[in-house]
Specification:
By secondary structure, the chain is mostly beta strands. Helices cover 6% and strands 49% of the residues. It has an 18-stranded antiparallel beta barrel. The relative contact order is 0.15.
Length: 445
């Protein structure tokens, strides 16, 4: 065992042993391998999240049973992440950092069954960093420490299916999302109204600012997209309709004045074929075009994709194809929902065609709950630059191993080891990643 890995293990054990375990969902973007194809999420699965509030702890409800609901149903959750990240190209190390971060979230109960609030404080501190090798995304500029009130919103219910969520919050929508693959997720300042019915869900609102995952600062959406000094925000509207059990169709549109509009749509057909077999077929389409003053240039592009998934007793076979138009997709506000998007490359360069083959195994049905393996191989061909010159082909192999106990003392722990080997035709453009991530969640009260 090398010194770096040994240091990571010692720090992880020391931090984990200080508290009793308590299970919670930490990463919303990155999950364990699905147990079946019909259970695998699609990009608009979380459209209704603006209606949700923070988790409630039963121990608090019992302890403060006579208190007003605002306090009786409140929770205070502490979450910890240790992250070791190393990235090499074909010549040298380009990022190398070990960091530890925390998340402290207060979620109130509801005042008069209407009003509640959530406040989250995120931190990320470098333990062993190599500033000269560049940014890892775990920390700030020059691998500086981070400390930020990332979420601070008020949620108001107008009824059982309609709610507003105001100010600093997180999303998990196509192109506007947490992108939670480093220490601290993206969060946004936004004002959103959302409806969650039995079959129809929709949301509408305006996002004014974004705090990216390697920053403490909330900046206007237009500035984050690359236009310095522009304070334009992004208007959003989306809807999802359940056609039949587990099968959906949906669309989401985001518009930033004088920059661009992105329209995303998807449909999925999911079926449980038998006790052990599951099936999912999905299609997606993104259209993106410049608008108004076209401050990022005059462009119009698209990307579309198809995905098929077939499962048997926790093993899921995935195949996917995507095709991008004459201009690369712009995605300054979060990760892309593309079916071939990978750990390092998104495979959505201009004119790029990409194919993926993947195999995952969730071992819950084989007597090992909380253990899963994901392997994906993706190739991209025929990509060009902005003037139509052919670019080198690309390929990427991603491997993810997860250990997430569901019971016992270590319930609440999530250990994830990830490896990626990506090639783009030259040593400088090639990438190799090693990521070791420990998440641990406890109830602070």
């Amino acid at each position: 065992m090398n010194v770096r890995l040994l240091r990571f293990v010692l720090i992880a054990v020391a931090l984990a042993s200080t508290s009793a375990a308590y299970g919670a969902e930490y990463q919303q973007v990155e999950n364990l391998a699905p147990e079946s194809a019909d259970a695998a999420p699609v990009s608009l699965e979380t459209l209704h999240e603006a209606l949700k509030r923070g988790p409630m702890r039963r121990v608090l409800r019992e302890r403060f049973a006579e208190s007003p609901p605002f306090w009786r149903d409140a929770s205070l959750d502490f979450r910890l992440r240790v992250y070791d990240f190393r990235r090499d190209n074909g010549l040298e190390t380009v990022a190398d950092s070990l960091a530890v971060g925390t998340e402290l979230t207060f979620s109130s109960g509801e005042w008069r069954e209407r009003l509640s609030t959530v406040v989250t404080w995120h931190t990320s501190f470098g333990i062993d960093t190599n500033v000269s090798s560049g940014g890892s995304g775990l920390l700030g500029v020059n691998e500086s420490d981070l400390s930020v009130i990332s979420r601070a919103y008020v949620r108001y219910k107008f009824g059982e299916v309609l709610a507003a969520r105001l100010y600093r919050q997180d999303f998990n929508l196509p192109y506007i999302n947490r992108q939670d693959s480093r220490m601290i997720p993206n969060t946004h300042e936004a004002y959103v109204l959302a409806h969650q019915g039995k079959r129809m869900e929709w949301l509408a609102g305006h996002v004014t600012k974004i705090k990216k995952r390697d920053s403490e600062d909330f900046v206007p959406m237009a500035e984050a997209a690359g236009v310095d000094g522009d304070d334009a925000g992004t208007s959003v509207v989306g809807a999802r309709y359940t056609i039949a059990e587990k099968s959906t169709i949906g669309a989401f549109v985001q518009h930033t004045n004088d920059l661009f509009t992105t329209a995303y749509s998807e449909t999925s057909l999911r079926r449980t074929l038998s006790e052990h077999w599951g099936l999912q077929l999905a299609a997606q389409l993104t259209n993106q075009w410049s608008v108004g003053g076209e401050k990022l240039g005059d462009f119009s592009t698209y990307t579309w994709g198809l995905r098929g998934m077939l499962s048997y007793r926790g093993a899921v076979l995935t195949t996917a194809y995507t095709k991008t138009g004459d201009t690369a997709i712009r995605k300054p506000f979060g990760g892309t929902p593309g079916f071939t998007s990978s750990m390092i490359f998104d495979f959505d360069r201009a004119n790029e065609e990409a194919w993926r083959i993947g195999l995952s195994q969730n071992f819950a049905k084989r007597g090992l709950p909380g253990v899963s393996l994901i392997v994906n191989y993706t190739e991209g061909r025929n990509a060009t630059n902005d003037i139509g010159e052919l670019l080198p082909d690309a390929d990427e192999l991603d491997i993810t191993v997860d250990f997430r106990p569901e019971k016992g003392f270590f319930k609440g722990l999530w250990l994830r080891v990830r490896y990626a080997d990506a090639n783009r035709g030259s040593p400088v453009a090639d990438r190799e990643d090693w990521r070791i991530i420990l998440n641990y969640s406890v109830s602070a009260l």
